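Researcher: Predict the fold of TauD/TfdA family dioxygenase.
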Amino acid sequence: MLTLTAMAGLGMGLFFVSVVNLVNDAVPAHQSGAGNGLLAVCTQLGAATGVAVLSSVLKGHTLHAPGGGCATAGRAATGSAAAERATTGSATDAGATTDSATPVTAFASAGPASAAAATGPASAAVVDERPVFDNGVSAAPVRELSPTGHFAPSAPYESFGLAPCSPTIGAEVSGVDLARPLTEELRAELHRSLLEWKVLFFRDQHFTAEQHRAMARWWGTPEVHPFLPKAEVPEVVRLARGADSPAVENVWHSDASFEATPPMGSLLRAVQVPAVGGDTLWADMAAAYDGLSAEMKTRLEGLRAVHGFTRTFGKGLGPEELARQQRKFPAVAHPVVRTHPETGRKLLYVNRIFTHHIDGMPREESDELLRFLCDQARHPEYQCRLRWQPGTLAFWDNRATQHYASADYYPHARLMERVTVLGDRPA
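Model: C-alpha cells for TauD/TfdA family dioxygenase follow.
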C-alpha cells in the first residue's frame, strides 16, 4: 500500500482521488463514503495540508474547518463541540456521529492587529485557510491562534524590549520608565504593541497618583469611576483587599461595559501584593470569537445584549441612590460581537457581571447562550497570566480582552491602583 507522502508525488488531483478508497476502507461500514467528501475538502486545502487532513482522519480524529464545518471519521462528537451544537439548536443530537463529510469552509479574517491595520476597520477580508482539529475530548479545538500565521510583531520595536507571554495576548515591556513624560514616538510604538498584544506589563514602575493619571492621559481622558473608592486624585481608583474586604474581582469581565461608552483601556499598578497568589489573568476575546463555529457566528450576527450595573455596584446602594445612579447609567445595549475600532477584528463582547440578557430573546434561551459565550474566556489557550510584584503595571485594551483577578490570597492584603481611559460606543 502506498503511503500518503508517496502518493502526494502522483500530483495533487490524482493523489486525492487515489486515497478515496483508502479512507473508505479505514472508517466504519456506515461511513464508507467519507472519502468521497474528503476529496472536496483536500482539493481546497492544497496538497501539504491535505496530507495532514487525511492523516488525521485515518487516525480517527475529527477535523473542523476554520468556519466550523467538519469531516468526521467514525468518532462521536463530545465535549465543547457537542455543547456548542446543543447551544446553537442543531438538529443533530449532541452525542451523535456525523454520517457524511462536510466540506471545509474558508472564513474571513481581519488580518494582523498591526500599526498598518490600526488606522481603522479592515476594508478587505483575508481568506483564512487554517485547519482546526477537534479530537472530541478537548475543551477547545486545536488551531493556529495567530491570524497572520506567526507571532511576530508587525515591525520591530525600536524604543523598548518586548517579551511575549503567550502566542496572542500579553507581553512584558522593558526599558521604559512610565513616570517620565513619553515622546510621541514612544507613545505610538507602545500603542502599536498594545493593539498587537492586548495587554502590556511593565515592571518597577514607582510613581504618584498624579503621575499615574498623567501617564493615562497619553491615551485619552481618564474616567472618574462612579462607584469605586478613590486615591489621592479622583481619576485613580484604589482597590484594597484583605481580611476585612474580601476580593470580588474573581470573575471574568470587561471594565464598565454598563456604560454607553465603556473604557478603551485600563492601567492597573500593584502597590502591595501578597507573598504568593493574587495573580490576574486576561483573555483574548478576538481569539475566542475566532474559535466559534460558522453556525454560531451566523447566529450571533446582529444580536445585542443589555448591560447594567445593578447586579454588582447596585447591591450596596440604598433605594434613592440606586434610582439616581440608574438615571445616570441606564441599562444599555451593545453588540454581542463588536468590531475593534482600530484593528477591525471581531470580538465577543459579553461578560458575566454586567451583561444581563440578549435583547429580544426569550430569557431561557438568552441565559443559555450567554453562559456558553461567557465560558469562552475560560479556555487557557486564549489567556495569559501575570504574577504581580510591587511596582508592576498592567495596561490592557479593554475593548479586546476580559480579565479575572484570582482571590486565592485571602486573608492577606492586596492593594492596587487603577486608571481607566474613556472609550467609544461599541459597534
